[in-house]
Amino acid sequence: MSPHDSGVTDLLRRASDDLTPDVDRLVRGGISRGRSRQRRARIGTTVASLAVIGVVGGLAVVVPHLGGADSARDPGIGTEGASATEAPSPTPAPDPDRAPPADELRTLVLPQDMSDTLLTLTGASRVDAVTIDESGKDRARLYYASVDGAQVSFWIRWYNNPQVVEDGGQPLPPSHICEPEVEPDCTTLPDGSRLLREEVRPGGGTGVPETFLERSLTLATYDGWQISVIARNTTDEKQGEVVADEPVLTMDEMQALATSTAWYA
Amino acid sequence: MPRTSEEFEEFAVARTPQLYRAAWLMCGEAHRAEDLVQETLAKVYVRWHRRLGAPIEHPVAYAHTTLARTYISAQRRRSNHETPSEHLPETVETGGDAATRLALREALDELAPMDRAVLVLRYLEDVSVADTADALGVSPGAVRNRTIRALDRLRAVLGPSLRDLLET
């Protein structure tokens, strides 16, 4: 290590040595989360099986959450999810560790069409397009939907765009978003897409009340799209008012939304 | 045979300060750092108690690799769709190396998440280039390039104060 290298080491250590974390609280929190993950893992086999069954062929799991008398959500949200994996995949090898080449990337529908579809599928009262990247880089689109008065964010971007590689990274496979070995909520879909389902937890952040909850789901599709859906029980992210006891979309609804084929032209 | 809960707690208590230091340097603020540490401990906890498979061979290295991967993974998942917010006054920075910390935090904020992780692993944790590459899922060449780029960026941002910080 050169003198300059050791100087950087000293600098990093000096800048962080006198930080005083609440070790007991962090350890308790880590153990609590770990136990929660263990519990979910134990019942996760059943849940994951049901989820796959629900996605592949059945509406039995999904529909009850969608078609209730008090729900304005389009039942198509479930059937779209089902069709996502029923349709034959253009990639014959469903390998989540395979980085998809750019020419396999499906084309998205127009931004306004995506917004309209989101409105229909979620039964939202309004949908706002926050980010629409037309530069061709990662083609990110971010929408905020107001569902039963609470915010649902829907974000899609190309996770494996050429800039990733130009920036020194390796081409990313779907498996880059999570590892089933360490995250029980991480699963691989039959088409090779990788899915991470993160159940309800506090939104977190400085001064954010514990009653601000969110449920999130991230999907890395087999062809290179990453879709993140976050449902909240509040009118806004980390601020606003609590309008429901729980985030306004169930995990199954969010999965059906993320795996819908309606986003692709 | 899996290790016991008592052993995990002992391990976690011993390692959390260092994990937190690394997390703070990666995240740049206390609340995200705390969240990152707890996520890391949770993942190690699950792996620690797994009944099938061999126990973790090098728990310290495993925990720090998990921390870095969790950080990068979270950045990839969430960074582009969270509303940016300024650094909030999480704690009162007083005395000691508070000035160093503030200057370094501002400089680190200029780096890409992957570059921050590389710097922390390489220089705080003293992890080799090969192991850093393995932990972050990039090539050794990319680690070297990112190290050079990150150090250049630190010099550019800190300017003459870098020398002062290194000498004081």
TrEMBL record, chain B:
Residues 80-90 have a biased composition (Basic and acidic residues). Residues 75-94 are annotated as: Disordered. Coiled coil: none annotated. InterPro entries: RNA_pol_sigma-70-like (IPR039425), RNA_pol_sigma-70_dom (IPR014284), RNA_pol_sigma-E_actinobac (IPR014325), RNA_pol_sigma70_r2 (IPR007627), RNA_pol_sigma70_r4_t2 (IPR013249), RNA_pol_sigma_r2 (IPR013325), RNA_pol_sigma_r3/r4-like (IPR013324), WH-like_DNA-bd_sf (IPR036388). Residues 17-79 form the RNA polymerase sigma-70 region domain. Keywords: DNA-binding, Sigma factor, Transcription, Transcription regulation. One of its GO terms (molecular function) is DNA binding. GO terms for biological process: DNA-templated transcription initiation. Residues 102-154 form the RNA polymerase sigma factor 70 region 4 type domain. It comes from the Bacteria. It holds the Pfam family Sigma70_r4_2. Belongs to the sigma-70 factor family. ECF subfamily. NCBIfam families: SigE-fam_strep, sigma70-ECF. This is SigE family RNA polymerase sigma factor. It comes from Nocardioides zhouii.
